[in-house]
Write a sequence for this structure.
């Protein structure tokens, strides 16, 4: 959709799941801690999602350059997201390097102000940034460009230069990080001409067909059927068939989707019931398809103080309202999460921490452990992933706790007030708990 780059500058947390519709991919949210764009609860939010459905994917979708003067540097957001996993958070990293807020491009660099894909200096800097990202961060997913069919409509000749750059970038990324899945993203409604309620009635399939699909490991889609239908139940089950028919079994990521929940003036109907209906609809639409990830736009309400109709529309897509209350669609959404995954905890270990919150010391108990002669590695991280404490608990002298057994350790800490995360690891057993220090 057409909106400012700051609207795109959010992260998607994706969670491993299956569903009533037999969906076996991943669920996701935009990074939306309570009160965002205030990110004071960022770490707590990541931990909440990491503990849901055995963790998932964080999708960082922002500009390829933080500022013009920093062109060529890895964006700070991508650095943070890629470095906070797998420790202390349990997610898979996914980044997108966007380069336009259509019709505005963001391709000028200090050495060359040319703002299109003929800019050789920009392409060198962009490519170097992608190589450094692949070489040092090895993201699981790398997308280059967001909703790019809009640029075909704007300048189909320069679009050819963009595709040429993408092919070069794909080859370079795969050399430095062969396991990264590389692709780009399209808005389905614009690409297919299925945005009648927003004036998008012309399809732009040439923007997709011009790609060599052997250089698309993954195809990213943003999907907003309320651009074309007033009610979620009106969306046909074959809604996405025009793209599926072109790609065969090529894997897909639905990078953004959702339905507005606030009662807004528009050509579509927005309500909590419409959200529930859309959750069921989207999983029926993709049933049996090779869709690896479905991201809902926001979990918590976006508290951006703007009167913009676009901002009001997309903040209302959140699965919680402006007071932080769960909307009915959230429970429906989580029904598509697979909680029957193979557990790493084969010995039914349970972690208990008390008191929590605490001031200077707390007690860690690992209960119902049947395994003998093993040590537990204990690591505590701050919200930025920095290790602040490490120790090992010896399992050789278990203590009794009621009907079970376990180990106990008193942890003494001298840490500032704040949120921390304690990780317990033994062989294939791995569990993380949130700590809060209050003095």
């Amino acid at each position: 959709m057409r909106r400012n780059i700051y609207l795109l500058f959010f992260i998607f947390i994706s969670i491993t799941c299956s569903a009533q519709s037999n969906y076996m991919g991943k669920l996701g949210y935009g990074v939306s801690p309570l009160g965002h764009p205030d990110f004071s609860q960022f770490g707590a939010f990541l931990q909440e999602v990491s503990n849901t459905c055995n963790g998932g994917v964080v999708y960082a979708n922002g500009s390829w350059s933080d500022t013009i003067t920093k062109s060529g540097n890895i964006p700070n957001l991508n650095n943070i997201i890629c470095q906070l996993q797998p420790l202390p958070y349990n997610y898979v990293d996914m980044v997108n390097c966007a380069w336009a807020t259509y019709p505005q491009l963001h391709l000028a660099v200090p050495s060359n102000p040319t703002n299109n894909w003929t800019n050789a200096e920009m392409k060198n800097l962009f490519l170097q940034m992608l190589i450094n990202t692949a070489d040092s961060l090895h993201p699981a997913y790398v997308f280059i460009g967001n909703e790019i069919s809009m640029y075909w409509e704007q300048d189909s000749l320069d679009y050819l230069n963009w595709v040429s750059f993408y092919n070069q970038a794909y080859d370079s990324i795969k050399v430095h990080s062969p396991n990264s899945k590389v692709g780009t993203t399209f808005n389905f409604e614009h690409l297919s001409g299925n945005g009648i309620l927003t004036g998008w009635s012309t399809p732009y399939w040439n923007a997709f067909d011009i790609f060599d699909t052997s250089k698309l490991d993954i195809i990213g889609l943003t999907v907003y059927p309320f651009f074309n239908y007033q009610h979620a139940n009106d969306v046909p089950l074959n809604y996405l068939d025009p793209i599926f028919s072109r790609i065969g079994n090529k894997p897909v990521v639905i990078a953004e989707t959702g339905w507005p929940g606030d009662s807004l003036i528009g050509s579509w109907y927005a309500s909590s019931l419409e959200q529930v209906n859309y959750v069921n609809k989207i999983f029926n639409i993709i049933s049996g398809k090779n869709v690896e990830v479905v991201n809902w736009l926001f979990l918590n309400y976006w508290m951006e103080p703007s009167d913009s109709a676009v901002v009001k529309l997309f903040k209302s897509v959140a699965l919680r309202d402006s007071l932080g209350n769960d909307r009915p669609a959230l429970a429906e959404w989580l029904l598509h999460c697979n909680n029957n995954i193979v557990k790493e905890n084969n010995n039914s270990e349970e972690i208990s921490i008390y008191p929590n919150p605490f001031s200077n010391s707390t007690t860690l108990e690992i209960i119902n452990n049947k395994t003998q002669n093993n040590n537990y590695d204990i690591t505590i991280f701050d919200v930025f992933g920095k290790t602040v404490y490490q120790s090992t608990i010896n399992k050789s002298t278990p203590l009794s706790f009621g009907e079970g057994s376990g180990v106990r350790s008193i942890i003494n800490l001298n840490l500032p007030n704040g949120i921390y995360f304690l990780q317990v690891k033994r062989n294939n057993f791995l569990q993380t708990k949130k700590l809060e220090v209050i003095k």
In short: Residues 120 and 317 are 39 Å apart (CA to CA). The chain has two domains: 26-336, 350-437.
